[in-house]
# Entry
Amino acid sequence: MKIAMIAPTHLPARRANTLQVMKMAQAFIRLGHAVQLAIPALPAPGEAVDWPTLKHFYGLQVEFPLTWVRVSHRLRRYDYGWKSVSWSRRQEADLVYTRLPQAAALASWLGQATVLEIHELPQGTIGKWLVRRFAGGRGARRLVAISAHLLDGLKHDFPSLSHPAAGRWDFPLMAPDGVDLDRYADLPDPAAARQWLAEGVEQAAIHFAEGDFVAGYSGHFYPGRGVQLLLDLAKRLPNVRFLLLGGEPQDVARLRSEAQARQLDNLTITGFVANADLPRYQAACDLLLMPYQRQVAGSSGGDIAGVFSPLKLFEYMACGRPILSSDLPALREVLNQDNAMLLPCDDLQAWAQAIQDLHSQPERRARLARRARQDSSRYSWENRAARILEGIKL
# Structure
């Protein structure tokens, strides 16, 4: 199948949506499909977009054609929707796959076989209209939601989506995000991974003391990610080393300043880590933290806590380290008491006690890590891509 993918934002970028798009493109190729990817706007002057850079940035093993589509920011991507759909038609693509509702609505209306993937409930009159326009078009084939809670919300907001015309589409579908299982296979133990970091591979060396017990976090520091809880935990547990991976430069600078003011000598903030290197950084940790709050800001600014499927969740599981996670309904779709410790979102004492308990219970750490690793096997990007394409009629 020839698939035209339409990215929702420019790349390279540190936003999770670009990483997810690149991983899905690779998965389709590994399944034997031909993929071309359209990207809004030209790269900024001097910005590297060669394939060696992109492979390292996104942790990819394959290459595929990229097309940058010039857009006007004043038109709020509506010109990009039209231009990218026109591009897909010139490519004679069998299927359009996108997270951009503007493109999905137009492609479906024009009769092109189209899959729309949604990561949060559409907001506003226009957002909901675009989904209805997509669903009512001759080309609509599938609407993909990343969590069961999101799917329930879509069915509530769009009752007609649960009753498609017979034979037109298999619709809708829930498909959580995924992970590159092969890149998380045979990772070194924490001590060996920490030695790798101490040698300064790829960026400044991170020095660990012998016998350190390391609690790790990877991802952005947006509101709702639990960053303040992490700082409070570092203050409460001086015998634990906290390793925070990622963050935009301004957020990293702010947190480093706050950590210095609070004299948190047991906390290290690395800044951005390329996806190619991320598994080894995560492997340097004895346990991994996911302290989401009751409200989580998405890239568009809305609250996604009730419907999200974080990429780090599946990376943590595949890494084979015990996971401490906030107990949120959307996360319980994947996590349970056998593969993680689920904790109240904002209960500092409960989190501190859980870390101390795991620190003193190596057998329990091993049991949780082993089960998480086993459960991650069902969440490969290739499995996800195959399930999404299964049964689609062109």
Q: What stands out?
A: Residues 16-30 form the longest helix (15 residues). The mean pLDDT is 91. The two ends are 10 Å apart (CA to CA). The CA atoms of residues 169 and 348 lie 47 Å apart.
